[in-house]
Design brief:
The complex is a heterodimer of chains A (332) and B (509). With 332 residues, chain A is mainly α. In chain A, 68% of the residues lie in helices and 0% in strands. Chain B has 509 residues and is mainly alpha-helical. The chains are: A mainly alpha (332), B mainly alpha (509).
C-alpha cells in the first residue's frame, strides 16, 4: 500500500550562492565542501597594512613566489570541510582509543623486551617534538597562505600533528607505566642528542622561511615524505617482526594519516606545477634542496631505526618520493 | 599496575614541553612578533590553561555536535522550515549576519592561526589553535545553515564578495582589519577579551534569541551549537588578560589602552546589531537598551570589579556608550533607512505595533525624538515621496559608520556629533570622543583606512553612478529598498496565500 503525503511545492529562486555559481555554474547544486571553501577569504580593499609587514596586505599573494592565476585551482580530493574532517577523525580516534585500551589492559607495551622499549623511546618518542614543529609550520601556512582551500587544510593538518604528538606521548607513557621519564628523555634527545640535531637544525631553518609555499614543500612534502615511510611503515614493521606487534595498532593513525595526506599534497603539487614552468622549477628546486638536506639529517637515525641497511632504505624512500613527485609533474 | 594520571596532569604532559627554545635560529627570528608591541612575557609556563581539551576529546565532542547540527540543517531545508518564520522581513537580520558576521568568523580563523604560530608558549599556542579551527567551523556552519535561505530570499547570495566592498560592511571589516593588522597581543586582547568576553552576549543574544522568537530553528541550532565553543573562547579572553597583567607591570598600561580602544571599536560595530535588534526583528526578545543594561552595565560592571585587583578599570568612554543606549538603534536604523536603496537588505518605517513597542522600551527618548521622525517618513511615503538620501554619507574615519550620532552625553541629543583632527595637513573627521581618541593615538594607521565613499569618488568602485557601484557590490535591483513591495515580501505572501493587505499568516492553534 502506498501512502501519498500531500506536500506543497516550494520553488527555490536560486540553486546556490553566487560565489559558488561563478565556479561551478549557477544551475548546479553545490556540495557542502564547495560552499565552505571557495572564495571565502578576503581578497581586496584592506584597511590597514599588517604592523609586522607594512609592505604587505593582510592576505597577500606576494607571500610566496609561486604564482597562480586562480588560487582555487587546487581543491582537496578528500573534500574536507570542518564537519567532514572532525567526523572522519572522531571515527579514527575511536579505533585508536580501543587500541590503547586493549594494549593497556594486557600490559602489551610495558611487558616488551627492554631493548624494544628503549628503541621505541629513542626512535619514536622524540618525534612528538617533530610533530609540534610541523604544527607550527602548518599554522604559519594557515596564517600567511593564500586561498581558503589551501589554508583550511593546513589548519586540519596542524591539528592532526598535535594529535599525533599526543599519541606518541601516550605510547611513551604506556611503556613507562605513566612515569614521565621517557618524555623527559625524548626532549633532551631532541635538544642535545647528536642523532637529532641536523633534523632540528633543518626544522628551525624551515621556521624562518619567508615563503609559505616553500614551508609547505619542505615540511608537508619532503620531511613527511621521508620520515613517515621510514618510521610509520618500515620501522614499525620491523618492531612488529621482533614481537612488538602492539605498536602497529598504536601507530595505525599515523600510517593511515600519511596515506591520506599524500592524496592532497600530490594534487597540490600537480596543479601548482601544471600552472607554469616557473612554478614547476621552483617546486622542483625546493624538493631537491630540502630532500638532500633532510636525507643527510636522517642518515644516523635511519641506521638506528632500521639497522645497517637503514641508509640504503632511506635512499629507497627518497627515490619513491621522487618517483611519486615526478608523476605530479616535477623535474627531479 | 601503572599509576593513574589525573586529567590535569595528563593534559600537562601531553601538551606542555612540546615546544623548545630554538638554538639554530635566534628566538626573535623564530617568534618575530612576540616582542615588538612592548609586551613582556617573563614565563610562558605560568599560563593557566583555560580549558584542558586534548585533540582526541575535541574531535569526539565536535563530531557529535556537528552530526546533530547538520541533521537539523538538512531537515530544515527538506521541510522548507523558512515558511515557519514570523515574517520574511526577519530574514533581513540573517542578511546582516551572513554579510557582516560570517566573514569575521573566517577572519578570526586566520587570526588565531597567526597566534598559534607566533606565541612561543605551548599552553597559549594550543588554546589559540583550537579557537582558530573553531572559528573555521563557525564560518562554515553559518554558510551551510543560511544556504537554504539564500535559495528563497534576496541579499544572501554573495556575502564574501560584499564584505570586501560594501559601504556598511566596512564597519565590521575595518574593525577586524584593525585588530588583525595589530600585533598578536593586541589582536587577542581585542577579539578574545573586548569582543568575545565583554561584548559577545550583545551580539549573540539578539541574533540567537531573535531567531528563536521568529521561528528560525536552523539559526537557533547553529547558535547553540557554537555556544560551547564560545564559552571556551571567553575563558581564553579572560585568561589572556590576567596572564599579561601578571607577567610584567609594564604590560598593564598597554593592555588597558587596548581594552579602551577595542571596547569602543567593537561597540560601534554593535551599532548595526542594535538596529537589527530593535527594528529588523519582527518579534524582538529584548531591546538594545535592556540588553546593554544586563550584559554591559551589570555583567561587565561586576567583571571589572573583579579585575580591579589586577589594576584594570572599565574601558574609557563606557559612560558615553551607556548614555547612548537609548538612542543608538534609532540613529543607526535611520541611517540604514535613508540609504537602503544602496543596501542588500530591506528597511521599513516601523509599524504601529513596533512603534508602540519602541515607546514602551524607550520611554525617555522614542516618543520625544524618534517617533515624530518616523511619522514624518510614513507621511512622505504615503505621498509617494519615500525619503532616500541620494548623496554619499560622510563616514567616521575610525568606525566608518555614517556621521549621524549625536551629542547625547552632552545633553544635546539633537545635535550632530563631529570631531576633527588635523594630521599631515589633512582634516580627519570622527563621530565621537571615543573614535577621535583612537584616531589621535594612531593617526597614520587610520589615515590609511579604505573609506567607501572616498573610494567611490575616486572611481575605485565600479563607476560614478549608484547603479555602477551596486553592480560592483554584486547587488541585484531587488536586494535593497523597502520591504514593502519587495520580492521577499511577494515570495512570502505567495507561499502563504496572503492577499495584499495581510502581512503575516493566521496563527494556527
Amino acid at each position: 500500500m502506498s501512502v501519498h503525503i500531500s506536500t506543497k511545492e516550494i520553488k527555490a529562486k536560486r540553486v546556490n550562492y553566487a560565489y559558488i555559481g561563478r565556479r561551478i555554474g549557477h544551475d548546479k547544486p553545490a556540495s557542502r565542501y564547495q560552499e565552505a571553501i571557495y572564495d571565502v577569504q578576503p581578497t581586496t580593499n584592506f584597511h590597514y597594512p599588517p604592523s609586522w609587514a607594512k609592505d604587505r596586505e593582510l592576505y597577500d599573494v606576494r607571500n610566496t613566489s609561486i604564482v597562480m592565476k586562480d588560487w582555487y585551482t587546487f581543491t582537496d580530493p578528500r573534500q574536507y570541510y570542518y564537519s567532514s574532517y572532525v567526523i572522519a577523525r572522531a571515527k579514527q580516534q575511536e579505533g585508536m582509543d580501543n587500541n590503547f585500551k586493549m594494549l593497556e589492559k594486557h600490559n602489551m607495551l610495558s611487558s616488551l623486551a627492554v631493548e624494544l622499549k628503549s628503541s621505541i623511546k629513542n626512535i619514536l618518542s622524540p618525534l612528538r617534538h617533530v610533530e609540534y614543529g610541523a604544527n607550527m609550520n602548518n599554522q604559519d601556512i594557515c596564517d600567511r597562505g593564500y586561498g581558503s582551500s589551501i589554508t583550511s587544510l593546513s589548519s586540519f593538518n596542524g591539528f592532526d600533528r598535535i594529535a599525533m604528538s599526543q599519541y606518541i606521548s601516550r605510547i611513551t607513557l604506556l611503556i613507562d607505566e605513566n612515569e614521565t621519564e621517557g618524555l623527559v628523555k625524548a626532549k633532551s634527545d631532541w635538544l642535545e642528542n647528536p642523532m637529532w640535531q641536523e633534523l632540528r637544525h633543518a626544522m628551525e631553518d624551515i621556521f624562518v622561511l619567508d615563503d609559505w609555499f616553500e614551508i609547505m614543500v619542505a615540511q608537508n612534502v619532503v620531511m613527511d615524505g621521508l620520515i613517515f615511510p621510514l618510521i610509520f611503515d618500515r620501522y614499525i614493521k620491523n618492531l612488529h617482526s621482533k614481537g612488538a606487534s602492539g605498536i602497529t595498532l598504536l601507530t595505525q593513525f599515523m600510517a593511515e594519516w600519511y596515506g591520506e595526506t599524500i592524496r592532497w599534497t600530490n594534487q597540490l603539487i600537480k596543479v601548482t606545477a601544471a600552472e607554469s614552468e616557473e612554478n614547476k622549477q621552483l617546486l622542483s628546486t625546493w624538493v631537491t634542496t630540502w630532500s638532500t638536506r633532510i636525507e643527510e639529517a636522517l642518515e644516523v637515525y635511519s641506521v638506528e631505526a632500521l639497522g645497517e641497511d637503514g641508509k640504503q632504505q632511506l635512499t629507497e624512500i627518497k627515490t619513491e618520493l621522487f618517483t611519486r613527485l615526478t608523476k605530479q609533474g616535477l623535474d627531479l | 599496575m601503572a599509576k593513574k594520571l589525573n586529567m590535569r596532569k595528563r593534559y600537562e604532559v601531553l601538551t606542555r614541553g612540546l615546544g623548545w627554545e630554538p638554538t639554530y635560529q635566534p628566538k626573535e627570528k623564530v617568534f618575530p612578533q612576540e616582542t615588538y608591541e612592548g609586551i613582556k612575557i617573563v614565563d610562558w609556563d605560568k599560563w593557566e590553561d583555560p580549558f584542558r581539551l586534548t585533540t582526541d576529546a575535541y574531535w569526539k565532542y565536535q563530531a557529535e555536535k556537528d552530526k546533530k547540527l547538520y541533521a537539523v540543517i538538512d531537515s530544515f531545508a527538506q521541510n522548507n522550515g523558512h515558511l515557519n518564520l514570523s515574517s520574511a522581513s526577519y530574514v533581513n537580520a540573517l542578511k546582516i549576519f551572513i554579510q557582516g558576521v560570517s566573514p569575521l568568523e573566517y577572519g578570526a580563523h586566520r587570526g588565531y592561526a597567526n597566534l598559534a604560530r607566533q606565541f612561543s608558549g605551548e599552553g597559549a599556542q594550543l588554546a589559540c589553535q583550537m579557537q582558530s579551527i573553531d572559528e573555521l567551523r563557525h564560518s562554515q556552519t553559518q554558510i551551510h545553515t543560511l544556504s537554504h535561505y539564500n535559495k528563497h530570499f534576496t541579499g544572501l547570495h554573495d556575502p564574501f564578495h560584499m564584505h570586501d566592498r560594501v559601504w556598511y560592511l566596512s564597519v565590521p571589516k575595518s574593525y577586524f582589519d584593525d585588530a588583525r593588522s595589530a600585533g598578536p597581543f593586541e589582536f587577542i586582547t581585542s577579539i578574545s577579551f573586548a569582543f568575545e568576553y565583554i561584548l559577545t552576549n550583545l551580539l549573540f543574544v539578539p541574533f540567537m534569541s531573535g531567531a528563536a522568537h521568529n521561528g528560525d530553528m536552523a539559526t537557533v541550532t547553529f547558535g547553540f551549537s557554537a555556544q560551547s565553543d564560545e564559552s571556551r573562547h571567553m575563558t581564553l579572553g579572560l585568561e589572556i588578560i590576567k596572564f599579561l597583567v601578571e607577567q610584567h607591570e609594564d604590560n598593564l598600561e598597554i593592555v588597558q589602552g587596548w581594552i579602551d580602544k577595542h571596547f569602543w571599536r567593537a561597540y560601534r560595530v554593535l551599532g548595526l546589531v542594535s538596529a537589527m535588534q530593535d527594528y529588523m526583528l519582527p518579534d524582538s526578545p529584548m531591546s538594545w537598551k535592556e540588553a546593554w543594561d544586563i550584559y554591559f552595565v551589570d555583567n561587565c560592571g561586576a567583571l571589572f570589579k573583579d579585575l580591579a585587583r589586577y589594576g584594570l578599570r572599565m574601558p574609557k568612554f563606557h559612560e558615553q556608550a551607556t548614555d547612548e543606549a537609548e538612542h543608538l538603534s534609532h540613529q543607526v536604523y535611520t541611517a540604514l533607512y535613508q540609504f537602503s536603496h544602496a543596501a542588500a537588505f530591506h528597511t521599513e518605517v516601523p509599524s504601529k505595533e513596533k512603534m508602540d513597542w519602541l515607546s514602551e522600551k524607550y520611554p525617555n527618548t522614542f516618543d520625544k525624538y524618534y517617533r515624530p521622525r518616523w511619522e514624518m517618513y510614513a507621511q512622505m511615503e504615503k505621498e509617494g515621496k519615500r525619503f532616500f538620501n541620494m548623496g554619499l554619507p560622510q563616514l567616521c574615519q575610525v568606525c566608518q559608520v555614517p556621521m549621524s550620532f549625536t551629542e547625547v552625553s552632552k545633553g544635546e541629543p539633537m545635535k550632530l556629533s563631529q570631531r576633527v583632527t588635523e594630521f599631515n595637513g589633512d582634516k580627519y573627521h570622527t563621530c565621537s570622543d571615543g573614535c577621535k581618541d583612537i584616531f589621535d593615538h594612531e593617526p597614520e594607521k587610520y589615515a590609511h583606512a579604505w573609506l567607501p565613499p572616498h573610494q567611490i569618488f575616486q572611481g575605485n568602485c565600479g563607476g560614478a553612478e549608484i547603479p555602477d557601484v551596486l553592480k560592483y557590490y554584486h547587488f541585484n535591483p531587488e536586494d535593497g529598498g523597502d520591504y514593502k513591495g519587495s520580492t521577499d515580501e511577494a515570495t512570502w505572501k505567495a507561499a502563504h496565500g496572503l492577499d495584499d493587505q495581510q502581512t503575516t499568516p493566521e496563527k494556527s492553534a
